Amino acid sequence: MNEAATIIENSFAEARKFDNFGTYTSATTEAPMNTIAAKQSDFEREALPHMSALYSFAVRLCRNREDAHDLVQETYMKGFRFFDKFERGTNCKAWLFRILKNTYINQYRKDKREPDTVEYDVIEEFYDLIRSESSESTDLQKKIFDNLLDDEVSIALESLPETFRTAIILCDLEGMTYEEIAEIIECPIGTVRSRLHRARKMLASQLLAYAKQRGYDTSDFE
Amino acid sequence: MKNTPKELEEYLASMADGEFIDPNTMQELQSRLENDPELSVALYIQTAMKSVLQTKQEALHIQAPADLRDSILKGIRNEHSVARQPQRKASFIEACWNALDPIISVLSPRFAIPLCMIIVLGGYVYVSHSTNNIEQTSASIADFSVVHAGQNNICSQAYSAFHAFEDGKMSLQKFSNDQGTLSTFFADNGVNYPVHFPKIDAELVGGIVSQEKGTKFAQFIYKVGDHLIYAYEVPEGLVDNQTLSVNPRAMEIVKKADWYWEQENGASNTMVLWRLGNNLCVMVSDLKTEQLSALIHVEET
Question: The complex's ipTM?
Fold first, then answer.
């Protein structure tokens, strides 16, 4: 037994003899005393497996790998500091994503101009066009969407406004449920649904524009 | 309640994602899908976009750099390294050399040699200046005559309590590693101010209630490895030289620099005084200053 433990143990014995306040309860002394090493080990086991997903998401948010690197590191440091507050057995990935998103908002986003976004009029125009088409045009749409290049999808994704981009990445790339996304972005499930719906419409509009640029015959839409 | 057409359309996202839709809405949606080809196209957009992203999930995933994991682990370990030493700053010469190395390596000796001489001279001037600074700092520390005198001085009380606890002359009255339990204990035993437990990477062990001129105060103990940390928290409003006091010089430093640190005379114990909410917190520990400071987290604002 080390010196500190001996002092505490002696203090415990003394306290039992002179229990001035009559509030001594043995149960509290039996609570496990997590050592720093145990906390570190628990944290590494629970949190580190999500590093890759966090980094990928961070790059999509920051659009800059250096900032994303720092953002993920900062997220883990904060996660570690507040790991005692994390309820074991709950969703560690969602918890870390939430820390990352808040850190991004507080530290990284403030100096950055929002990127060019898809103009909503264009989306509505596109949407009106496909509304007017019969369902037979879905074959063409399928052909167009199936032949997209990885870069085109990536650029289209990055062109979405941040709130929509976040929702669609968390749902379609990270496979999170609406409940998990709502927890991360701190808004009701209805808002998650609405953002996803709009995000996909915007994405479709952008991807159709790429298809046109690549010479796809989209005359059926026009 | 009936959904508006816009709300109903948004439920197409839930449909594509296989999320829960209440039975009434689902019925309404299915009925509209059967009769409205536009809505079918809208559903197709939702499913097609999901499918595009899922198909390209691997290609869209951005691999984390190899050093990220190591950086994170290093950060965590540094955060918790009790034996952490202050990082040695690169010397001026090293810094200059590192910065200029790529340039020097491509310069001819005709230019590189004078440049090296300038670096050496610059280094000499810098080192001389730094030495002067150290001397000045030592002098200013020597000028500090912070004496924690008086029975009601919270710093001398903290030292005495720490020694009494170490020597077994003072015992914990409540054992718990739970802040809530200790807060209740303090409140139940007459401490009539909120106690803000500092954010510290040490194990809370228990608490003691002390009394000064009829007022009850909270004290608590942490342990980390083989070391003890004693904390004494009092409302700043009561540090009025009547109930409690503190050396004005130490208080002035707290006001200017947020923290007052000192090494106990004739012992290797460390004391720190700082503001915690409306309270003043004094900690005494057998840890070194850099060890104790590494454990305390600055409150996030």
Answer: 0.71
